[in-house]
Amino acid sequence: MPKLAAWSMDRSPGDDGSQQSAPKRVERSYIELEKHLEDWIVKDVTLIGEGLTLVGQQVKIDDGRLDLLAIDSQDRWVVIEIKPGMLDSGALTQALYYASSIARLDPLELRKKIETGLGRFGDAVRLSERVNQQLKSEGEEHREIAVMLVGAGVQPGLERMNDFLGRFGVPISVVSFEVFELDGGPQLLIREVMDEMTEPSVPKPKYTVDAIRQRAADAGVGTQFDRLLSIARAVGLPVRPYRYSVNLVPPADKKFMLMYASPTTGVSGGQLYFEVGLETFSKFFPHMDKRETVDALGELHQVYADGKELDEHLDRIEQFLARNFPELHTGRE
Questions:
Q1: From edge to edge, which strands make up the β-sheet containing 239-241?
Q2: H or E stretch including 112?
Q3: Is residue 179 within 8 Å of residue 28, measured between CB atoms?
Q4: Nearest by Cα to 1 from 165, 190, 255, 254
Q5: CA 333 to CA 330: how far, in whole Å?
Q6: Nearest-5° Cα angle at 56, 138 to 49
Q7: Cβ contacts of 255 within 8 Å, gap of 6 or more
Q8: Residue 153: φ, ψ to 5°
Q9: What predicted TM-score, i.e. pTM, was given to this entire model?
Q10: 299 neighbors 310 (Cβ within 8 angstroms)
Q11: Which of 12, 121, 198, 265 is most buried when burial is the number of CB atoms within 10 A of its CB?
């Protein structure tokens, strides 16, 4: 990853009365990133990526403590290792050690390690439902785990190791931050992301949309789930299935999540759990107004909905997508 630098652009009047831009180098801040990053991520997990639901912090694993544990939009556990300074092979080794420890834990053991701390991330009851769904869905299949390294800079050898392990189906992503401080003003947190390899040689388990449709029918939200699929089809957004959910994805790169939907059975009956990738919409569809996207879909970030509320959410999704993809909208049911 390249070393980042930043400049502020101050506007001042020129001799002819026009506004002239004068670049001014912004100095790095020597804030202790590890000390603050973990708390910042807990407050806003989108700092490191979209589609993540935090479920564990400082989880005791064997003879160490895992910084953060999450569930992602591909229905995987994500081991998040945070380091001060530059990320190196030692950070990767430690993260893989924690991942292997999570992989061997009995479901009851894993739940016990994280259950009592769920309240620090939001609604403990809802998060407990998400964890239980994740554990229950694993059945006899092996537990899927991804690794995320978070730090300030990356040593060159780590990129090479990441590429190599990606060929064997080890999903690793790297998030690097730099902090800059404006003169007499706020600090700027700049993020750079190294995505995990997208074409591993080890095939992933095959999941189907029909299997998720059946889950939705069993939960009592089959009609609403089919409506979501119809909305996606009408505007030309591919639907990618995972273990017990689907992602609406951009046609240009199907590994990114625009919208996550998972059928589940709640206390009062069938529900759909939604997440929306607001940054992903902005990245792949720059013609969309970001503020409009937030206004239209922002409330769907990590929300369970059923009954009338679910129908209203689907109305909002359909109206938003039809309005922003008029060239693709066919009006099909």
A1: 239-241, 246-248, 259-266, 269-276, 303-305
A2: helix 107-115
A3: yes
A4: 190
A5: 9
A6: 85
A7: 195, 198, 249
A8: 95, 160
A9: 0.80
A10: no
A11: 121
